[in-house]
Design brief:
This is SnoaL-like domain-containing protein. Residues 49-150 form the SnoaL-like domain. By secondary structure, the protein is of the alpha+beta class. It has helices at residues 3-17, 47-57, 61-65, 85-99, 158-165; strands at 33-34, 38-39, 42-43, 68-76, 81-84, 104-113, 116-125, 134-145, 148-156. The chain has a single domain, classed as Nuclear Transport Factor 2, Chain: A. Helix content is 31%, strand content 34%. Strands 1-6-7-8-9-4-5 form a seven-stranded mixed beta sheet, sandwiched between helices. Strands 2-3 form a two-stranded antiparallel ribbon. It is globular and about 40 Å long.
């Protein structure tokens, strides 16, 4: 991982999840892009970030899965699960859609530096059976290989998801 991403990842994680400590340095201006910020004649959000958000917002799990390498690793740190390959990614998307019908991610910010991509989003929905919806900041750190996602590591505050949803802190989905 190059120096600018290694320094920017703690900044994003701290701002979004308030869980990262350490020294924060600013990223190079050409690698940080805010939605709506013009760089030249167009907004420069990494295509993979837009496609990743669209894949999560699609009812078709394969739309997300096809963005990944066949041997990809997808880690959701909040719930402590790791999925492997496109089939695993599609299965994770299906499970998420079952427990959180209409789950949505809204892109807030993203940047790419070589094969490293950082995505800042708002993750929202309503867990099946929960009395209230949730909306929390989330961060995804992607590592690309040949323009496909080889690793995806997601960070968000599960305690905030459960609290906003009106569920107890030790709640687990039925059948898990």
């Amino acid at each position: 991982m190059n120096r600018s991403l290694r320094l920017a990842v703690p900044a994003l994680t701290l701002a979004l999840a308030a869980t990262t400590a350490g020294t924060i340095a600013h990223a190079q201006p050409e690698t940080t892009v805010h939605i709506g910020q013009s760089t030249g004649s167009r907004t420069s959000v990494p295509r993979v970030a837009r496609d990743w958000i669209a894949g999560w917002n699609s009812p078709n799990p394969d739309r997300l899965a096809r963005l990944f390498t066949t041997d990809a690793t997808y880690t959701d740190n909040a719930v402590g699960v790791v999925w492997h390959g496109r089939t695993g990614v599609a299965d994770w998307k299906r499970r998420t859609d079952q427990f959180i019908p209409g789950v949505q991610l809204r892109l807030v910010n993203a940047f790419r530096d070589g094969d490293d991509v950082a995505i800042q989003a708002v993750y929202s929905g309503q867990i099946t059976g929960a009395p209230r919806p949730f909306s929390v900041p989330a961060t995804a750190i992607l590592k690309l290989r040949h323009s496909l996602i080889a690793t995806d590591t997601d960070y968000y505050n599960l305690a905030a998801v459960l609290a906003q949803s009106g569920l107890p802190a030790d709640w687990t989905p039925p059948g898990s």
